[in-house]
Each structure stands twice: as structure tokens, then as C-alpha cells.
Amino acid sequence: MKVFLRVPYELRRQAKAMGAHWDPTARKWYTITRGAFLRCKHWWIVPLDRKVSDWLKDPISEQRYHDAMQQWHKEHHPSKFGRDVSGENPKQ
């Protein structure tokens, strides 16, 4: 879930280090994981939207998101997940 933040320009590097991302179309900073959102709490746009409040209350949503993204990356970029550990060397 993309949750927008109100980040001052001079703090953009700090926001990025805390896990925020820049949306060039919306021209706003946002987070997609609960951890990053909680780290960036001083930039929240208050009051929080009901969808965001429900998302924060669901402790499994971030894990489901992480698992889904990891599965997608494994399917689409298998070479980035290390070498083949099956014991067979395909180059021989």
C-alpha cells in the first residue's frame, strides 16, 4: 500500500535513508512497508486515512507483502538469488 508523506525538501535524503520513496508523478514521498511508515511518522499526513489505520492494525500485511515481493523477484530474477545449490553444475 502506497502511503504518502509530507517531507520537507531539505530532509529528502533522511527520508530516503528511512525507507521512503519519491513518486515523480505525484511529486510526493511515500512508503510501502509498515516499518518504513513507522520510521517516518514525523512526516505523516494527519489525520490518517481509514485504509492506512486499518493497514497499521494488521500485523500480517507487511509480512504478506514481503513474501509476495520476494516470490515475484525469485520468479522474475532467479540469478539475483545466489548460485544454484542443487549440487549440479550446469556449465559442465
Alpha-carbon Rg, integer? 18 Å
How would you write the strand order of the largest sheet?
A: 1-3-2
In total, the number of domains comes to 1
The main β sheet shows up as: 3 strands, antiparallel
Low-confidence stretches: none
**How many distinct beta strands?**
3
State the helix count.
4
Write down the overall geometry. globular
The end-to-end distance, rounded to whole angstroms, is 45 Å
Give the averaged pLDDT, no decimals.
77
Structure classification: alpha+beta
The sequence of SSEs as H and E is: EHEEHHH
Strand content: 5-15%
Helix content: 25-40%
Tags for this model:
92 residues, alpha+beta, 3-stranded antiparallel β-sheet, 3 strands, globular
Structure in words:
This protein has 92 residues and is an alpha+beta fold. It has helices at residues 12-17, 34-39, 50-57, 61-76, and strands at residues 3-5, 21-23, 28-31. It has one domain (3-75). Strand 2 and strand 3 form a beta hairpin. It is globular. It starts with a strand and ends in a 16-residue tail after the last helix.
